[in-house]
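Q&A log
Question type: sequence-to-structure
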Amino acid sequence: MWEFIARFVLKYRLPLLIFLITATGIMGYQASKVQMSYEFSRAIPTNNPKYIEYQAFRQKFGEDGNLFFIVVQTDHLFSRDIFNEYIQLNNRLRKVNGVEQVLGVPLSVNLKKVDSSEKLKIVRLFSDQYSTQAALDSDRQVFMSLPFYKTLLYNPETNAYMMAVNINKNILNSPKRVQVVKEITDAGKEFGKKTGLEMHYNGLPMVRTNMATKEAAEMKFFLIASVVLSACILLLFFRSISTMILSLAVVLIGVVFSLGTMHIFNYQITLISVLIPPLMVVIGIPNCIYFLNKYHTTFIETQDKHTALYEMIRRMGVVTLFCNITAAIGFGVFAFTKSAVLKEFGVVAGINIMLLFFISVILIPGMLSYLPNPGKRQMRYLKNRWLTSILDKLEIWTLHHKGLIYRITVVILLVSIAGMFRLQSVSYIVDDLPKKDPIYSDLKFIEKNFKGIMPLEILIDTKRKNGLRGAAILQTMIKVDSLSQYITSRPEMNRPLSLLEAFKFVRQAYYSGDSANYALPNQFELSFLAPYLNTKGDTTRKDGLLNRLMNSFIDSNKQQMRLSVNMADVGTIHLKEVLSDVERESASLFDSSKYSVRLTGSSVTYLEGSNFIINGLKESILWAFVLIAFCMLYLFRSLRILLCSLLPNLIPLVITAGVMGWVGIPIKPSTVLVFSIALGIAIDITIRFLVNYKQELRSGESDIQKMVINTIHTTGISIIYTSLVLIAGFGIFCFSEFGGTQALGWLTSLTLVMATFTNLVFLPALLMTLNGKKKEIS
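Response status: OK
Response body:
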């Protein structure tokens, strides 16, 4: 079959090249339209109960993760000049396109009792401008007497003040969010510059926008860096500009196809799929090196370019095809997970790794046929003395130190397995960012002063329409008050915001604003406070925090109410414990026959999504391993060879897992990806080694040792070259701003280093041990 393919490719090379160029132009047009993803709830499948609950909550109560927080810490906020600027900051934020409302000190309201009508009037606490300090001090005194705002808008112990900017949900899920976040941040910077105060910014909109922006920038950086690095390595190896350009053309076309595929399938670039373009470069270059290596070695033997091209396709086509198949399996299995982000990554990566093979087998021989014969200079790498000496030493180790190789391997494996028991599966919303990043430091600042920004929603269902009306509401509020006190007592959670706070605010207002009366009304008080619960005034304003409570924290049927909690980014392990504690406390307070209490919100979906991605990746690795094993069994038709092929690739994975455990790198979505990538790529080395070994078997040679040594020398140089390219390519990821991507880079490089050694030392020793002097039947 491959003889036919070789003749076909060479005979119709011009039409094939024209077809490839045309297809590249079409895919380039599609690639130009691909966009970044600004939707962050797609890690969970749509039929997951947590996802369904969260979407039902959003439909009923609106978004929970659309607040942008601006925090300033100062003893002088209520100095007239500074506070006037603070008012202007508030006004400027409200004018930003996409901002729905601003919750902050300048727009805080109070309730005034109107005895004649038994109504409460909503009044602004602060004026739009202050000409005297005395007037501001008077309003400040009233503000400080309202416990409702304490810990929500200010921390009296640290003198920290918060503005919460509510951003439209449609803006947040579109590229416009970048501009909105920039305008909000610029407004805060302008205030800080005028007043000399340090500003702190955070919130899920900022975290997600900055991470998406960094993803886009890093994709460009990694793509350019991988291309430049590959160009330098290729030029160093082959000493030929035309060969370098040809190889880069292969991988760049692969990049164009991968981005075009994303748009064709209506996918967007995510934190995971951002790795695909540089991966196309890293994976595509070995294809080029192996094809060119076979072309050069055959040309030296025959001195005929056409024969060399024919043998290159015939001999290396099947090897490269299976290498790409196994690599595609390593990535493509993600397509069978239920997580959208993993599915998209698997589909795009799997398809385009296979397309890389077709691009290589069309472009490389087609272009080489029009180029001059290779010169001695560009084939000098085949006789590299340094690499030859390394292969000679590997030969000595393999022939004379098999026992020592096995003992060292066992010791390393035992140490690695011990490290694996230290592995933890934990992730944080910003743990991929360096500790010095302003987003990280500002998050910790806000957690210190307001306990955090991660939204947790507690939904209390009375199981009957109007269950939050009449006398029954008091019994519910007593239970809600107990739950609120429990939550407030926890160090990682702020005081919940709910309808309960409105009840307390109304009671305080009824008793002439005395802060001692900020408490839940009793049964007697509730009867004469009921008329006052219908506030009057400028009720059309969306800025009043009380109005937001009344309208957003109880559903239209008066059956369900929500408690909104902001909490710290405690990590998935502790978060699971916190949620369990809250569920346990809720179960003890609310009779399950009368109430249903559910926890939802971004915190819950983040935990569920993180766990889902990690579990999906683990399952994918197992499936990849099984499918690759079947491919190897089909290719070599020997259980003995199958065993020899799998062990050298399992060992590096175990070593990497052990290293992660010993150095304290947790299992999380960005690091667990290492194992699938490494397995898909490292198995290529094994395939190329064993295919050459199989070809040695067919040569008529009966001495197994001699065949193994010949295989080391015939494939060793290209294996080392491609390993260097791969290791350097993944090493680029170490320059990422994301800790997870950095770990992905050096851990994958480490795995590939180990895979190179196991395939050039352990695998040959294993072949000779299992086969002895008996020739393997294939």
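Response note: The CA atoms of residues 106 and 466 lie 35 Å apart.
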